[in-house]
Design a protein that fits this description.
Elements lengths: L3 H5 L3 H34 L6 H54 L3 E2 L6 E3 L4 H4 L2 H43 L17 H13 L51 E2 L1
Antiparallel strand pairs: 1-2, 2-3
Length: 256
């Protein structure tokens, strides 16, 4: 589970920059694929070269052509996944910031992980009046629980985006027994997710939460070394691209 500290300090620009770089790689690979096809494969095929050597060479040259195209498809898919993750995480980050600002404006505080919302102690008159104190605490507790629920919803959105991106990277940045690039990579977005689910189902796999991991998968070359998303409180481990300085809040008087 992504916590509030992770989300608030997420370096979304890193994902955005990575998406741009991967798309640039895809563009270069497509250009190489076209050049390989027109300069190498086409000329060899039209050369009149005959005999056993061309029979062996032509399939290998065609595989090179096919692999460049597949590599471009895979790189573009990775760019799409990272770009989509950046947008989803930024949206969740903005929502969290808005709720935290509202909490602060109300005089309440929220813990770094987002699991606790606190409110100030009552004034002396209220504190010494049992009925007034009970009313104050009940009112503040209800408001704090509302804030906590909203923070929890945003953190779930961020966690789902994180998991969704990792599932997509693990599925798209894959290979076969021959070490081929993935010509069936589909990228990010609802339509791509549906295609990917169908591909997994055809292979007898299922895109369940147990098969998800965090975007510690990023960069995609580390996809096989993913570790689960964590929060500071629960596991002491954070997704690798969630980082930043620790922020502090006033010591709470009352908490939920």
């Amino acid at each position: 589970m992504v916590d509030l500290h992770d989300l608030s300090n997420a370096k979304v620009d890193v994902l955005t920059a990575a998406a741009t770089s991967w798309e640039q790689i895809a563009t270069k690979l497509r250009a190489m694929d076209g050049e390989w096809n027109s300069v190498v494969v086409a000329k060899i095929n039209g050369s009149g070269w005959t005999g056993k050597s061309p029979e062996l060479a032509k399939p290998a040259l065609q595989r090179g052509n096919d692999q460049l195209g597949a590599a471009a498809t895979e790189a573009s898919a990775i760019a799409s996944v990272l770009g989509g993750a950046a947008k989803d995480i930024q949206a969740a980050k903005d929502k969290a910031a808005a709720v935290v600002a509202e909490i602060t404006a109300a005089g309440y505080t929220v813990s770094q992980d987002g699991g606790t919302v606190s409110w100030p102690a009552p004034d002396k008159a209220t504190a010494h009046d049992p009925e007034a104190s009970r009313t104050y605490q009940d009112k503040c507790r209800a408001k704090a629980e509302g804030f906590q629920h909203r923070i929890g919803n945003v953190l779930r959105e961020a966690t789902e985006a994180d998991q969704r991106a990792c599932l997509a990277l693990r599925a798209d940045a894959t290979t076969d027994k021959d070490g081929s690039f993935n010509a069936q990579a589909v990228g990010g977005g609802p339509e791509a997710d549906a295609k990917r689910a169908a591909q997994l189902a055809a292979r007898g796999s299922s895109p369940t939460p147990n098969s998800w991991n965090s975007t510690a998968c990023w960069p995609p070359t580390a996809a096989t070394r993913c570790s689960p998303p964590g929060s500071t409180r629960r596991s002491g481990r954070r997704a690798s691209w969630f980082s930043g300085t620790t922020w502090s809040a006033p010591t709470p008087a009352w908490t939920v």
